[in-house]
Amino acid sequence: MYRSTELTTAELAAFENMRPKLAGLAYRILGSLSDAEDAVQDTFLKWAGADRTAIENTSGWLVTACTRRCLDMRRSGDRSRVEYVGAWLPEPIQLSSESDAEEAAELASSLSMAFLMMLERLTPKERAAFLLHDIFELSHADVAETLDTSEASSRKLVSRARGHIGRSVVRHSASPDRQLAFLSAFRTAATEGRIDDLSRMLAEDARLSADGGGKVPTILKAIEGSASLCEFISSDLRRYWADHEWVTVNLNGMHGALINFKGRTTAALSFAFDDSAKVRDIYIVRNPDKLTHLDAVHVN
After folding, report:
1. Distance in angstroms (rounded) separating the CA atoms of residues 76 and 74
2. Are 144 and 151 in contact (CB under 8 A)?
3. What is the pLDDT of residues 244-270, one digit of tens each?
4. Spatial separation of the C-alpha atoms in residues 154 and 69, rounded to whole Å
5. CB 111 within 8 Å of CB 93
6. How far apart are CA 270 and CA 252, in angstroms?
7. For 57-86, what is each residue's pLDDT tens digit?
8. Closest Cα to residue 237, out of 284, 280, 190, 279?
């Protein structure tokens, strides 16, 4: 049942207190900040129109409404992604400061591009169940209620998700100094053509993926192998980025770089390490639609 009454100050405050959590949940499910913002706004409208006097658990109601909206959007997005040109990568987000990541290390690790790419292996329900239980620490009873299923099904969904993504791998993160060292090595290779430091920091099976969305020039298939990556970065990429401005920022809870040309961000660079502190994945987002939100955001 819905009603059209104004929110009280307390009701508005209750939603705003939940907004960062809802935004964080929506972003992890959808992989897009713009879509996450739409999902949170839709949740707000539903909250504003609901019979709030009948709602005993405000946070639980909001999480349920937001999750279900995200699942609807996710299913629709998965169908449209079939026509996506080239590799699809999550929309990168720029945290406002290093302290943001330090204050919530576990949540920051679950914002990483590597983690979000791991989530792509899951079905929408597996993804939601895993995030709600393992990241946002809801009980299986609460997860079951949110997903309109049983506790036994919730346990199975979470178990399958863990099996698909391998928590020990996605949780690994190199030290900030190691991250900065790799950024420096990458920049040296891409601007000066020197690859010694870069080659030492790459895993043998390292992989570079780029997302242009068919809107800007970029590679359509991933480049694999450290030797091939070094050649591409020091030769092909150097022709494009040698005279660009590099800005080190916090992207998705890790050090990354924005590549700017004539005052406009043309690429976002991030990466993932393996358990031996070597880089196993490099992610370059070039799709201009995914670069518009690269500013301070607040997600938990």
Report:
1. 5
2. yes
3. 999 999 999 899 999 999 889 999 999
4. 18
5. yes
6. 9
7. 999 999 999 999 999 998 887 766 778 888
8. 190
Distance CA 218, CA 155 (A): 41
Relative to beta strand 264-273, strand 279-285 is antiparallel
List phi, psi (to 5°) of 267: -160, 150
- What is the rounded CA–CA span in Å between residue 123 and residue 266? 32
Phi, psi of 136 (to 5 degrees): -100, 0
Q: Which element (helix H / strand E) includes 119?
A: helix 113-119
Supply the pTM of this predicted model: 0.88
| Rounded-to-integer distance, Cα 46 and Cα 2, Å | 8
The pairs formed by 41-46 with CB atoms below 8 angstroms and a separation of 24 or more are: 42/69, 43/69, 44/15
- 192 membership: H or E segment, kind and range: helix 176-192
Kindly report, residue by residue over 170-212, the tens digit of the pLDDT.
Answer: 546 789 999 999 999 999 999 999 999 999 999 999 999 999 9
As a whole number of angstroms, the distance between CA 212 and CA 133 comes to 33
3-state secondary structure of 89: coil
d(CA 93, CA 111): 9
Show Cβ contacts of residue 249 under 8 Å, excluding neighbours closer than 6 positions: 94, 255, 256, 257, 258, 294
- The residue type of 149 is T
280: helix, coil or strand?
strand
Residue keyed to tokens 């996450």: 36
The DSSP secondary-structure symbol of 245 reads: E
Which tokens belong to 114?
Answer: 């590597």
Which residues, including other chains, have CB under 8 Å from residue 9's CB and lie 6 or more apart?
none
In angstroms, the Cα distances linking 146 to 126, 131, 179, 226 are: 13, 12, 37, 44
